[in-house]
Amino acid sequence: MTTTKQGYTHNLLLISENQLSLKSLSGFSESQGYQFKGVDGCDSALDLIRRSNFDLIVLAVGHTPARWNALFDFVREKRNQLPIIALCDAGLFGEFSNRLNHPNIYPLVAPYNPVELDKTIKEVLNQRRIQFEVNTLQERIKQSEKMHRFLVNNSPDIIYILNERGEINFINDRVEKLLNISKEELIGKHFSTLMSEEECKQHPYVFNERRAIKRVEQRSELHLRKRLYLNGEDKTTSLSMPFEISAMGIYEIDRRNSKPQFRGTYGIARDITDRKQAESLMRFQAYHDLLTGLPNRTLFRDRLSLAISHSKRSGSKVAVMFVDLDRFKLINDSLGHTIGDQLIQAVARRTSEILREGDTLSRFGGDEFTLLLPNIRSQEDAVIIAKKILHELKQPFFIENHELYVSGSIGIAIYPDHGEQIEQLIQNADIAMYHIKSHGKNGYQFFNEKMNQSYAERLTTEQDLRQCVEGEQLFLEYQPIYNVQTSGVYALEAYVRWNHPQRGILNPAQFLHVAEETGIIIELGNWVINRVCADLEEWANPILTIAVNFSPKQVEHADFENMLMSAVKAHNVSPNQIELEITEELLMTDLNLITSKLKRLSRLGFSISVDDFGTGYSSLSCLHKLPINTIKLHESFLRHISNQYQSGDACIVSAITAMASGLNLNLVAEGVETQQQKDYLMNLGCNTMQGHLFQGPVSSQEARKIVVAPVLTE
Ligand code: C2E
Ligand code: MG
Ligand code: MG
User: Fold this and answer.
1) Phi then psi dihedrals of residue 149, to 5 deg
2) What is the pLDDT of residue 79?
3) Which of the listed residues 531, 670, 675 should we mutate to test ligand 1's pocket, taking the one with most ligand atoms within 8 A of CB?
4) Which domains does the chain have, with CATH numbers?
5) Closest ligand 1 atom, CA of 673?
6) Does 645 have pLDDT greater than 70?
């Protein structure tokens, strides 16, 4: 059978002018199972060849070979053209030989012997198949070479081949771009030309890589030299660039002993500058604070651990300081985060400048910095630095047209005096810092054990507070505010108290700051306003006003208005009976937001007073814009008022009194304790007062007695 392995039947073109011979060839082809077509002229043969695919032509040349010239020419011209078996009379061979002499033409003596013809056809077809396969393979190799050349020359990596002596046999174009050295310059040179001497010693395997493919996965990093031109082209120097090298030994089988023979090295060198930079940036970010560039907590702990180990050996001390800026929140809230961030950066810069090499200043978060002074002799060394920092912080900071003043509170813990463990030292410095903060700020303080107790107390206060709001431990006291001219009660002020199961009755100073820091103040405030409304409902005195204190956190809370309204509604109380006591500190936060909130509350009927007036920073213009009814003069201004009326405080009181009347605000003097104070205030025209001189805070039962009796107002 003549079909191929792929099931293809060979297609023959039979050509003869002689009908008899054409018939004979057709009969022969049919008997052998070939597909065939027969034609009797050169033109029709050429026409068919152009239109159809044949595997072989069998041509009976006859007596007039010249007639077939066009056909022979066609076959000669085209490479890989159809093979022709030319059946030719023996006599014609001589004169026709130059025509027949072509690798694709197979002459055979006519008349043909069927066995010989069949054998020749098979041979020709076989050869043609082999030729075809060779051509296909060559084409594939050509394409693959083209592709490899393209890949090699366009590769972002340097690709090279070294001989067994480590000399460069091949290197791709990339080397020129990456290292500024032409490949022509490198061919024949040793690979070490590209490396520094040091690097060559450390990585000799790069140009002598003998490992074969299996272990090549192991990559190594080294530096290659990039040529740099200085002063134009005159002088050159080199820059070390990081590369990742993958290399593999090349082996050939030695014919003599059939053993693999080392012939050199293939290698790829990848420029990893970007990756290295990204890695070092990531490393930096992992250990540094992005805003200031200072070490972060992790790096601080690391350095502290090293310093402690060193001190253990040398017997020296280590100081850990916790530095917290005072009033930073105020600046951040009032001037915005951008200014706040710049201030933090400026503080970091200024503080870093006064430190020794070896000291570590780190940003712990927000406005908190920690400082490590390793290897100090005594606590005095830490005092010197703490004083220097406080002095530096005191100087004004100029940021975007603002002249800003901050101060700092510094807590100090010394190794080994105040702890031997990293966490303990940091925590104790933090506790000492809290201590100085709650005692007037702006100073430094060493840790001592007593502070630990108050710190622990603070922690338990927080835990207890969470439970107390739900329990029955809170209660209110009320203090009347009098109109001293009429001796009538002008209003009551509510103060929260906590009946702690172990510690007894606690005043707000003992727990409010913890409630504020932990957010418990929101729940606590809700309890207070509901209790006040419940009392108002019970006492049923529609002209009584009760002043209720609210810290900034409460007023800023998104639910503040809802909370107030649900309390008054729940107890059928009119908002007119509630005065909201806010602090000046609140006015330093987002003033626009607060103004619109207070305006809404004022429209609902609540009156608003500014508590402890004169101790904060509120400006006159902001007082004017806000819907404020009353200002409450802080008791501290009354402390020095004596018979002589000489002190500076007295001047402030008269100034505030004048201002209140100018702005048409009620003025209430707080903490009036002596007759002189009362007289002095009355003299200035301030007639609304509260204080121990009249009545201290009383229980709600006592307060009830006061207000259920007919209430006198102005
Ligand atoms: P404040 O609103 O300025 O209250 C005045 C404080 O002075 C009260 O202390 C009061 O008992 C005390 N006081 C009254 N008369 C005199 C006097 O003649 N001389 C002196 N030296 N002091 C007098 P208290 O109750 O310990 O409250 C302290 C602060 O805690 C209050 O200051 C207020 O800001 C806050 N506070 C009290 N209750 C609450 C509350 O329910 N919520 C909130 N957020 N804060 C509250
Ligand atoms: Mg108050
Ligand atoms: Mg007050």
Assistant:
1) -60, -40
2) 52
3) 670
4) 11-137 (3.40.50.2300), 158-278 (3.30.450.20), 288-447 (3.30.70.270), 462-708 (3.20.20.450)
5) 18
6) no
Least confident of 163-172, 330-339, 345-354, 642-651: 642-651
Distances (CA, A) of 277 to 30, 180, 560: 77, 21, 50
If you average pLDDT over residues 94-109, what whole number do you get?
81
Taking only the tens place, the pLDDT of each residue in 323-337 is 999 878 878 877 889
85 lines ligand 1 (CB under 6 A): no
Instruction: Please work out whether the CB of residue 508 comes within 6 Å of at least one atom of ligand 1.
Output: yes
The answer to whether the beta carbons of residues 226 and 238 sit under 8 Å apart is yes
Sign of CA dihedral 190, 191, 193, 196: negative
Which positions ≥6 away from 121 have C-beta within 8 Å? 12, 32, 34, 56, 58, 85
Is the pTM of the predicted complex or chain greater than 0.70? no
Determine if ligand 1 sits within 6 Å of the CB of residue 618: no
pLDDT band at 711 (very low <50, low <70, confident <90, very high): very low
Calculate how far, in angstroms, residue 551's C-alpha sits from the geometric centre of ligand 2: 10
Is the minimum distance from the CB of 691 to ligand 1 under 6 angstroms? yes
Measuring CA to CA, which residue among 394, 422, 395 is closest to residue 408? Answer: 394
- Residue minimizing CA distance to atom 38 of ligand 1: 495
Q: How far is the CA of 611 from the centre of ligand 3 (A)?
A: 5
Which residue's CA is the closest to the ligand 1 atom numbered 45?
A: 549
Per-residue burial over 413-431, b if 16 or more Cβ lie within 10 Å, else e, is bbbeebbeebeebbbbbbb
**DSSP bridge pairs for 403:** 398
Residue 479 CB–ligand 1 contact under 6 Å: yes
SS3 call for 456: helix
User: Would the CB of 614 count as within 6 Å of ligand 1?
Assistant: no
- Name the band, by pLDDT with cuts 50, 70 and 90, for residue 712: very low
Mean pLDDT of 581-609: 90
The residue whose C-alpha atom lies closest to atom 7 belonging to ligand 1 is 671
Ligand 1 site, residue 694, Cβ cutoff 6 A: no
- Decide: 669 and 686 in contact? Cβ < 8 Å: yes
Average pLDDT over residues 546-559: 94
The ligand 1 atom at the shortest distance from the C-alpha of residue 508 is 30
- The average pLDDT across 29-54 equals 89
